[in-house]
C-alpha cells in the first residue's frame, strides 16, 4: 500500500469484483480517512525505585510506571481540538484521532505550539502525527462493503420469513 500511495496518481479500490471508489491518494484519504493520529509518549519513571531516571532514590509515590495522567492530557488536547477521540492508552503512549477539519481551522498549529511548551508539565517526552494510511482507507471501504452485504442478507431473510 505504501508503494501505491507514493506512485499512484489514481487508485481504485475493488471489493468482491465491484469498483467501490477511485481517486488520488489525497482524495481517498480525505474522503474515507478518520483524520490524523496524534501519539504522545509518556515520561517513564524508573520502575525499580519509583523515581525518574537520574534522580536520587526515594520511596515510590505510587505504583504507576508513568507520572502521566490520561485525563489531564486529554483535557489539554480538547482545549485545542474539541472533537479529538482517545483511541489507545498503553503504559508508554496515548493515541488520539484528530479530525481533518481541525487543520482548516488552524487548531493544529496552536495545539502543537502549546503541547511542545507543556511536555514537561504533562509528563510527556514527545509527540508525533500521522496521516491516515491507504491501508486504513482500504480496510474501511472493505468493512463498509461487508456491513452492507450483511444488511442485505438480513433483509432478504426477513422477507422470506413473512
UniProtKB/TrEMBL annotation:
GO terms for molecular function: ABC-type transporter activity; lipid transporter activity. GO terms for cellular component: membrane. Residues 45-69 are annotated as: Disordered. Keywords: Repeat, Transport. Residues 60-69 have a biased composition (Low complexity). InterPro entries: ABCA. The keyword Repeat applies. It comes from the Eukaryota. This is ATP binding cassette subfamily A member 2. It comes from Hypotaenidia okinawae. The lineage of its organism: Eukaryota, Metazoa, Chordata, Craniata, Vertebrata.
Amino acid at each position: 500500500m505504501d508503494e501505491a500511495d507514493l506512485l499512484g496518481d489514481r487508485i481504485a479500490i475493488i471489493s468482491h469484483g465491484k469498483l467501490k471508489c477511485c481517486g488520488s491518494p489525497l482524495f481517498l484519504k480525505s474522503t474515507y480517512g478518520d483524520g490524523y493520529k496524534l501519539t504522545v509518549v509518556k515520561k517513564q519513571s524508573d520502575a525499580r525505585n519509583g523515581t525518574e531516571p537520574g534522580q536520587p532514590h526515594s520511596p515510590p509515590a505510587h505504583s504507576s510506571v508513568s507520572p502521566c495522567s490520561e485525563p489531564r492530557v486529554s483535557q489539554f488536547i480538547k482545549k485545542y481540538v474539541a472533537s479529538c477521540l482517545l483511541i489507545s492508552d498503553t503504559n508508554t503512549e496515548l493515541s488520539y484521532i484528530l479530525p481533518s477539519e481541525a487543520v482548516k481551522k488552524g487548531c493544529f498549529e496552536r495545539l502543537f505550539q502549546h503541547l511542545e511548551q507543556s511536555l514537561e508539565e504533562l509528563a510527556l517526552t514527545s509527540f508525533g502525527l500521522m496521516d491516515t494510511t491507504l491501508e486504513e482507507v482500504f480496510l474501511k471501504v472493505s468493512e463498509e462493503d461487508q456491513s452492507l452485504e450483511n444488511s442485505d442478507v438480513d433483509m432478504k431473510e426477513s422477507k422470506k420469513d413473512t
